[in-house]
Structures are given as C-alpha cells and as structure tokens.
Predict the 3D structure of the following.
Amino acid sequence: MLDHLKNADCLDYAQKIGDRRWLKIVHGHCAALHARQGHYSCRMYAARPNVCHVVEAGSRECLDARRRRGIS
Ligand code: SF4
C-alpha cells in the first residue's frame, strides 16, 4: 500500500481504490519501473512500499511473482 505517499511525482505511479493507494500496473509491470538499455531502476525508490524493501530483487519470491505475471 502507498498510503504514506505525499510527493506528487510518486502519486503518478499509484491509484486510489477505495480509501487506499496501490501501485499502478502498466504493460504488465509496476508503473514506477524505469527500463532503459537493459538497465532497470525505480522512479520512486526512496518512497517505495514496504514490500519492495522486503522482497529482494532476484530472490525466489521475486522470481515466483515475475513468473506468475509472465514477466520472466
Ligand atoms: S521497487 Fe517497487 S515501486 Fe519500485 S519499480 Fe519495483 S515494484 Fe515498483
């Protein structure tokens, strides 16, 4: 959840459903994911939600989630 977001830039990557904010999914991935020439970064890294702190990139949980969404 992104209820902590206040920065207008970060709000571009969130949508409000009910009384909560969630990451937008665009083209099958998080709207905050920035991909350029094979390099990936987060456009809201400092304000990313807790799950992004907990799930390590490339970990089993990360790869399972990517597989479920057809990303890898
Ligand atoms: S770290 Fe989280 S907020 Fe940032 S691009 Fe990845 S999924 Fe989106």
Summary: Residues 8-68 form one domain. The mean pLDDT is 84. The chain has one domain: 8-68. The beta strands are 14-17, 20-23, 25-26, 29-30, 33-36, 39-42.
